[in-house]
Protein backbone atom coordinates (compact mmCIF):
# COMPACT_ATOMS: atom_id res chain seq x y z
CA UNK A 1 0.00 0.00 0.00
CA UNK A 2 2.90 2.29 0.69
CA UNK A 3 4.16 2.35 -2.90
CA UNK A 4 1.33 4.69 -3.93
CA UNK A 5 2.08 6.91 -6.93
CA UNK A 6 1.00 10.08 -5.11
CA UNK A 7 3.89 9.64 -2.69
CA UNK A 8 6.37 10.59 -5.41
CA UNK A 9 5.25 14.24 -5.40
CA UNK A 10 6.47 14.81 -1.86
CA UNK A 11 10.01 15.84 -0.94
CA UNK A 12 12.09 12.96 0.36
CA UNK A 13 12.02 14.05 4.01
CA UNK A 14 8.20 14.32 4.07
CA UNK A 15 7.87 11.03 2.24
CA UNK A 16 9.98 9.31 4.90
CA UNK A 17 7.75 10.73 7.66
CA UNK A 18 4.57 9.55 5.93
CA UNK A 19 6.02 6.06 5.63
CA UNK A 20 6.29 5.88 9.42
CA UNK A 21 2.54 6.31 9.91
CA UNK A 22 0.52 3.35 11.20
CA UNK A 23 -0.65 1.27 8.21
CA UNK A 24 -4.35 1.75 9.01
CA UNK A 25 -3.99 5.52 9.09
CA UNK A 26 -1.83 5.61 5.98
CA UNK A 27 -4.28 3.50 3.97
CA UNK A 28 -7.13 5.81 4.96
CA UNK A 29 -5.45 9.09 4.03
CA UNK A 30 -7.70 11.37 1.99
CA UNK A 31 -5.91 14.72 2.09
CA UNK A 32 -2.42 15.90 2.95
CA UNK A 33 -2.20 19.66 3.42
CA UNK A 34 1.18 21.36 3.29
CA UNK A 35 1.24 25.02 4.30
CA UNK A 36 4.65 26.66 4.27
CA UNK A 37 5.81 27.48 7.79
CA UNK A 38 2.76 25.90 9.39
CA UNK A 39 1.83 22.42 10.66
CA UNK A 40 1.53 19.65 8.06
CA UNK A 41 -2.05 18.37 8.26
CA UNK A 42 -3.45 14.91 7.51
CA UNK A 43 -7.12 14.17 6.89
CA UNK A 44 -8.37 10.58 7.12
CA UNK A 45 -11.88 9.18 7.56
CA UNK A 46 -13.26 12.66 8.19
CA UNK A 47 -10.78 13.45 10.97
CA UNK A 48 -7.73 15.68 10.91
CA UNK A 49 -4.33 15.20 12.50
CA UNK A 50 -0.96 16.91 12.41
CA UNK A 51 2.21 15.07 11.43
CA UNK A 52 5.14 15.18 13.85
CA UNK A 53 8.83 15.34 12.96
CA UNK A 54 9.11 11.73 14.18
CA UNK A 55 6.43 10.47 11.79
CA UNK A 56 3.69 10.26 14.40
CA UNK A 57 0.44 12.17 14.76
CA UNK A 58 -0.69 14.83 17.19
CA UNK A 59 -3.65 17.11 17.76
CA UNK A 60 -1.34 19.85 19.02
CA UNK A 61 -0.27 22.14 16.13
CA UNK A 62 2.67 23.44 18.16
CA UNK A 63 4.13 19.91 18.28
CA UNK A 64 3.78 19.30 14.55
CA UNK A 65 6.34 19.23 11.76
CA UNK A 66 6.33 22.57 9.91
CA UNK A 67 7.59 22.40 6.31
CA UNK A 68 9.58 25.40 5.15
CA UNK A 69 10.26 27.14 1.87
CA UNK A 70 12.62 24.40 0.74
CA UNK A 71 9.91 21.72 1.04
CA UNK A 72 7.34 24.01 -0.59
CA UNK A 73 9.57 24.72 -3.59
CA UNK A 74 10.54 21.07 -3.92
CA UNK A 75 6.91 19.94 -3.85
CA UNK A 76 5.99 22.46 -6.55
CA UNK A 77 8.94 21.30 -8.62
CA UNK A 78 7.89 17.66 -8.37
CA UNK A 79 4.20 18.14 -9.15
CA UNK A 80 5.00 20.28 -12.23
CA UNK A 81 7.63 17.78 -13.37
CA UNK A 82 10.35 20.47 -13.18
CA UNK A 83 8.56 22.60 -15.77
CA UNK A 84 6.39 25.24 -14.15
CA UNK A 85 5.71 27.20 -17.33
CA UNK A 86 4.00 24.20 -18.99
CA UNK A 87 1.40 24.19 -16.19
CA UNK A 88 0.18 27.77 -16.61
CA UNK A 89 -3.39 26.76 -17.44
CA UNK A 90 -3.60 24.47 -14.41
CA UNK A 91 -2.10 27.14 -12.18
CA UNK A 92 -4.73 29.59 -13.38
CA UNK A 93 -7.44 27.15 -12.26
CA UNK A 94 -5.80 26.64 -8.87
CA UNK A 95 -5.13 22.91 -9.07
CA UNK A 96 -3.00 20.31 -10.81
CA UNK A 97 -4.12 16.72 -11.40
CA UNK A 98 -1.38 14.10 -11.44
CA UNK A 99 -1.34 10.51 -12.68
CA UNK A 100 -3.88 8.38 -10.85
CA UNK A 101 -6.49 11.13 -10.63
CA UNK A 102 -4.97 12.71 -7.53
CA UNK A 103 -5.73 16.44 -7.44
CA UNK A 104 -3.45 18.97 -5.81
CA UNK A 105 -5.09 22.23 -4.84
CA UNK A 106 -2.89 25.31 -4.73
CA UNK A 107 -2.97 28.54 -2.75
CA UNK A 108 -0.77 31.59 -3.18
CA UNK A 109 -0.80 35.08 -4.69
CA UNK A 110 -2.81 35.69 -7.83
CA UNK A 111 -1.66 37.82 -10.76
CA UNK A 112 -4.62 39.58 -12.39
CA UNK A 113 -5.14 40.74 -15.95
CA UNK A 114 -8.30 42.62 -16.86
CA UNK A 115 -9.79 41.68 -13.50
CA UNK A 116 -9.32 37.94 -14.14
CA UNK A 117 -6.78 35.53 -12.71
CA UNK A 118 -3.89 35.29 -15.17
CA UNK A 119 -1.44 33.33 -13.06
CA UNK A 120 -0.73 32.00 -9.58
CA UNK A 121 2.61 32.74 -7.98
CA UNK A 122 4.27 32.61 -4.56
CA UNK A 123 2.54 29.27 -4.04
CA UNK A 124 2.80 28.25 -0.40
CA UNK A 125 -0.26 26.08 0.22
CA UNK A 126 -0.91 22.60 -1.20
CA UNK A 127 -3.79 20.18 -0.69
CA UNK A 128 -3.04 16.71 -2.05
CA UNK A 129 -6.39 14.92 -2.44
CA UNK A 130 -5.86 11.19 -2.79
CA UNK A 131 -8.14 9.40 -5.26
CA UNK A 132 -9.06 5.76 -4.68
CA UNK A 133 -11.28 3.17 -6.26
CA UNK A 134 -13.95 1.66 -4.04
CA UNK A 135 -15.47 -1.14 -6.14
CA UNK A 136 -19.08 -1.75 -5.20
CA UNK A 137 -19.71 1.58 -3.47
CA UNK A 138 -22.44 2.26 -6.05
CA UNK A 139 -24.12 -1.14 -5.72
CA UNK A 140 -26.74 0.12 -3.29
CA UNK A 141 -27.82 3.17 -5.25
CA UNK A 142 -27.61 1.90 -8.85
CA UNK A 143 -30.77 -0.29 -8.70
CA UNK A 144 -32.74 2.77 -7.57
CA UNK A 145 -31.70 4.67 -10.70
CA UNK A 146 -32.85 2.07 -13.22
CA UNK A 147 -35.35 2.99 -15.94
CA UNK A 148 -36.98 -0.35 -16.75
CA UNK A 149 -39.22 1.09 -19.46
CA UNK A 150 -36.25 2.21 -21.55
CA UNK A 151 -33.79 -0.44 -20.28
CA UNK A 152 -31.49 2.30 -19.09
CA UNK A 153 -31.08 4.66 -16.13
CA UNK A 154 -32.93 7.82 -15.13
CA UNK A 155 -31.44 11.30 -15.49
CA UNK A 156 -29.86 11.70 -12.05
CA UNK A 157 -28.30 14.60 -10.16
CA UNK A 158 -26.11 13.66 -7.19
CA UNK A 159 -25.57 16.33 -4.55
CA UNK A 160 -23.12 16.34 -1.67
CA UNK A 161 -20.88 18.68 0.29
CA UNK A 162 -17.19 18.53 -0.67
CA UNK A 163 -15.18 15.42 0.23
CA UNK A 164 -18.15 13.11 0.79
CA UNK A 165 -17.35 10.64 -1.98
CA UNK A 166 -19.41 11.74 -4.97
CA UNK A 167 -16.54 11.38 -7.46
CA UNK A 168 -15.73 7.92 -6.08
CA UNK A 169 -19.42 7.05 -6.40
CA UNK A 170 -19.86 8.11 -10.03
CA UNK A 171 -16.63 6.31 -10.96
CA UNK A 172 -18.17 3.10 -9.66
CA UNK A 173 -21.53 3.87 -11.28
CA UNK A 174 -19.73 4.21 -14.63
CA UNK A 175 -18.22 0.78 -14.11
CA UNK A 176 -21.56 -0.79 -13.20
CA UNK A 177 -23.53 0.82 -16.03
CA UNK A 178 -20.87 0.04 -18.61
CA UNK A 179 -20.55 -3.61 -17.55
CA UNK A 180 -24.27 -4.20 -16.99
CA UNK A 181 -23.79 -4.99 -13.29
CA UNK A 182 -27.22 -3.58 -12.40
CA UNK A 183 -27.53 -5.22 -8.95
CA UNK A 184 -31.21 -5.97 -9.62
CA UNK A 185 -32.66 -9.41 -10.50
CA UNK A 186 -35.11 -7.99 -13.05
CA UNK A 187 -32.58 -5.90 -14.97
CA UNK A 188 -31.71 -8.23 -17.85
CA UNK A 189 -30.27 -5.80 -20.39
CA UNK A 190 -26.55 -5.59 -21.20
CA UNK A 191 -24.18 -2.80 -20.27
CA UNK A 192 -24.56 0.58 -21.97
CA UNK A 193 -22.14 2.89 -23.77
CA UNK A 194 -20.90 5.41 -21.21
CA UNK A 195 -19.14 8.72 -21.87
CA UNK A 196 -17.25 10.37 -19.00
CA UNK A 197 -16.46 14.07 -19.28
CA UNK A 198 -13.45 14.28 -16.98
CA UNK A 199 -12.48 17.95 -16.89
CA UNK A 200 -10.19 17.56 -13.89
CA UNK A 201 -8.91 14.04 -14.71
CA UNK A 202 -10.29 12.80 -11.39
CA UNK A 203 -13.01 10.33 -12.38
CA UNK A 204 -10.99 8.04 -14.64
CA UNK A 205 -7.52 9.18 -13.57
CA UNK A 206 -6.35 9.02 -17.18
CA UNK A 207 -2.69 8.98 -18.08
CA UNK A 208 -2.02 9.92 -21.71
CA UNK A 209 -5.69 9.33 -22.44
CA UNK A 210 -5.88 5.86 -20.87
CA UNK A 211 -7.95 5.48 -17.65
CA UNK A 212 -6.02 4.24 -14.63
CA UNK A 213 -9.25 3.33 -12.80
CA UNK A 214 -11.76 0.67 -13.80
CA UNK A 215 -14.58 2.65 -15.39
CA UNK A 216 -16.04 -0.31 -17.28
CA UNK A 217 -15.57 -2.06 -20.63
CA UNK A 218 -17.88 0.20 -22.68
CA UNK A 219 -16.74 3.56 -21.35
CA UNK A 220 -15.08 6.39 -23.30
CA UNK A 221 -13.37 9.26 -21.52
CA UNK A 222 -12.91 12.86 -22.67
CA UNK A 223 -10.07 13.91 -20.43
CA UNK A 224 -9.13 17.46 -19.44
CA UNK A 225 -11.97 19.02 -21.44
CA UNK A 226 -14.40 21.68 -20.18
CA UNK A 227 -17.69 19.99 -19.37
CA UNK A 228 -19.98 21.84 -21.77
CA UNK A 229 -17.67 21.33 -24.74
CA UNK A 230 -16.94 17.73 -23.79
CA UNK A 231 -20.62 16.82 -23.58
CA UNK A 232 -21.27 18.11 -27.08
CA UNK A 233 -18.13 16.48 -28.48
CA UNK A 234 -19.08 13.10 -27.04
CA UNK A 235 -22.67 13.33 -28.31
CA UNK A 236 -21.42 14.09 -31.83
CA UNK A 237 -18.56 11.62 -31.97
CA UNK A 238 -19.17 8.66 -29.63
CA UNK A 239 -22.98 8.16 -29.59
CA UNK A 240 -23.16 7.40 -25.85
CA UNK A 241 -26.18 5.96 -24.08
CA UNK A 242 -25.19 7.62 -20.81
CA UNK A 243 -23.08 10.69 -20.04
CA UNK A 244 -21.40 11.05 -16.64
CA UNK A 245 -20.10 14.45 -15.59
CA UNK A 246 -18.80 15.82 -12.28
CA UNK A 247 -19.50 19.15 -10.56
CA UNK A 248 -21.80 21.02 -12.92
CA UNK A 249 -22.71 24.59 -12.05
CA UNK A 250 -22.18 26.97 -14.95
CA UNK A 251 -24.97 28.07 -17.32
CA UNK A 252 -23.17 26.49 -20.28
CA UNK A 253 -23.15 23.15 -18.42
CA UNK A 254 -26.93 23.32 -18.09
CA UNK A 255 -27.33 24.15 -21.78
CA UNK A 256 -25.16 21.19 -22.80
CA UNK A 257 -27.12 18.83 -20.54
CA UNK A 258 -30.35 20.04 -22.13
CA UNK A 259 -28.87 19.17 -25.53
CA UNK A 260 -28.10 15.68 -24.24
CA UNK A 261 -31.77 15.31 -23.27
CA UNK A 262 -32.87 16.27 -26.78
CA UNK A 263 -30.37 13.78 -28.21
CA UNK A 264 -31.87 10.96 -26.16
CA UNK A 265 -28.80 10.50 -23.96
CA UNK A 266 -29.20 9.74 -20.26
CA UNK A 267 -27.18 11.81 -17.77
CA UNK A 268 -25.66 11.29 -14.33
CA UNK A 269 -24.21 14.54 -12.98
CA UNK A 270 -22.96 15.80 -9.64
CA UNK A 271 -22.99 19.20 -7.97
CA UNK A 272 -22.02 20.64 -4.62
CA UNK A 273 -24.90 20.88 -2.17
CA UNK A 274 -26.39 19.35 0.94
CA UNK A 275 -30.12 19.84 0.35
CA UNK A 276 -32.17 19.19 -2.77
CA UNK A 277 -34.30 22.24 -1.99
CA UNK A 278 -31.26 24.49 -2.54
CA UNK A 279 -31.51 23.92 -6.30
CA UNK A 280 -33.86 26.83 -6.82
CA UNK A 281 -31.14 29.14 -5.49
CA UNK A 282 -28.58 27.96 -8.07
CA UNK A 283 -29.24 29.78 -11.38
CA UNK A 284 -27.67 27.17 -13.64
CA UNK A 285 -29.31 24.23 -11.90
CA UNK A 286 -32.68 25.95 -11.61
CA UNK A 287 -32.73 26.12 -15.44
CA UNK A 288 -32.89 22.31 -15.38
CA UNK A 289 -35.70 22.23 -12.81
CA UNK A 290 -38.53 23.88 -14.76
CA UNK A 291 -39.53 21.85 -16.65
CA UNK A 292 -37.67 19.16 -14.71
CA UNK A 293 -34.67 17.67 -16.49
CA UNK A 294 -33.52 15.30 -13.76
CA UNK A 295 -35.83 12.44 -12.83
CA UNK A 296 -34.01 11.49 -9.63
CA UNK A 297 -32.11 13.64 -7.15
CA UNK A 298 -29.72 12.00 -4.70
CA UNK A 299 -28.08 13.59 -1.68
CA UNK A 300 -25.16 11.56 -0.35
CA UNK A 301 -23.23 11.86 2.85
CA UNK A 302 -20.57 9.68 4.37
CA UNK A 303 -21.20 8.19 7.80
CA UNK A 304 -19.46 5.67 10.07
CA UNK A 305 -20.86 2.68 8.19
CA UNK A 306 -20.21 3.91 4.66
CA UNK A 307 -22.15 6.08 2.26
CA UNK A 308 -25.71 7.12 3.14
CA UNK A 309 -28.06 8.54 0.54
CA UNK A 310 -31.54 9.95 0.15
CA UNK A 311 -33.47 10.05 -3.12
CA UNK A 312 -36.18 12.40 -4.42
CA UNK A 313 -38.22 12.20 -7.61
CA UNK A 314 -38.64 15.01 -10.16
CA UNK A 315 -41.32 16.63 -7.98
CA UNK A 316 -38.91 16.62 -5.01
CA UNK A 317 -40.87 13.93 -3.17
CA UNK A 318 -38.75 11.66 -1.00
CA UNK A 319 -38.63 8.11 -2.35
CA UNK A 320 -35.74 6.42 -0.56
CA UNK A 321 -33.54 6.78 2.51
CA UNK A 322 -30.75 4.30 3.04
CA UNK A 323 -27.11 3.37 2.77
CA UNK A 324 -25.12 2.49 -0.32
CA UNK A 325 -23.88 -0.78 1.08
CA UNK A 326 -26.96 -1.85 3.05
CA UNK A 327 -30.65 -2.33 2.53
CA UNK A 328 -32.45 0.96 3.14
CA UNK A 329 -35.94 2.05 4.00
CA UNK A 330 -38.47 2.71 1.26
CA UNK A 331 -40.37 5.99 1.64
CA UNK A 332 -43.04 6.43 -0.98
CA UNK A 333 -45.69 9.14 -1.08
Notes on the protein architecture:
With 333 residues, the protein is of the alpha/beta class. It has 2 domains: 5-129, Beta-Lactamase, CATH 3.30.450; 142-330, Rossmann fold, CATH 3.40.50.300. Helix content is 21%, strand content 32%. It has 8 helices and 18 strands. A 9-stranded mixed beta sheet has the order 12-11-13-14-10-15-16-17-18, sandwiched between helices. A 7-stranded antiparallel beta sheet has the order 4-3-2-1-7-6-5. Helix 6 (227-238) runs parallel beside helix 7 (251-262). It is globular. The N and C termini lie far apart (47 Å). The relative contact order is 0.11.
Question: Which key terms come to mind for this protein?
Answer:
nine-stranded mixed beta sheet, 8 helices, 333 residues, seven-stranded antiparallel beta sheet, 32% strand, 2 domains, alpha/beta, Beta-Lactamase, Rossmann fold, disordered C terminus
Number of helices: 8
Number of domains: 2
Distance between the termini: 47 Å
Strand order of the largest sheet: 12-11-13-14-10-15-16-17-18
* Percent range of helical residues: 10-25%
**Strand coverage percent:** 25-35%
CA-based shape:
globular
**Main sheet makeup:** 9 strands, mixed
Q: Any idea of the CATH topology of the largest domain?
A: Rossmann fold
Name of the CATH homologous superfamily of the largest domain: P-loop containing nucleotide triphosphate hydrolases
* Average pLDDT reading: 89
The CATH architecture classification of the largest domain is 3-Layer(aba) Sandwich
Q: State Rg.
A: 21 Å
Question: What class, by secondary structure content?
Answer: alpha/beta
Number of DSSP E strands:
18
The residue ranges in which pLDDT falls below 50 over 5 or more consecutive positions are 325-333
Q: Would you state the CATH class of the largest domain? A: Alpha Beta
H/E topology pattern: HHEEEEHHEEEEEEHEEHEHEHEEEE
Amino acid sequence: MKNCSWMTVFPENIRSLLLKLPPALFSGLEEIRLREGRPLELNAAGRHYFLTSAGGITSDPSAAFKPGKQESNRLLDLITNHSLYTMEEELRKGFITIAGGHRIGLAGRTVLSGGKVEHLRDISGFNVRIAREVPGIGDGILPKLLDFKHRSIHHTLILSPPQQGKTTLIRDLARGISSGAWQHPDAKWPGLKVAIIDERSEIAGSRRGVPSFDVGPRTDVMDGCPKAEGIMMMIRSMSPDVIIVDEIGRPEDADALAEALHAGVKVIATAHGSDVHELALRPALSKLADPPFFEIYAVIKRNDSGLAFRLWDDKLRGIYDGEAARKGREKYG
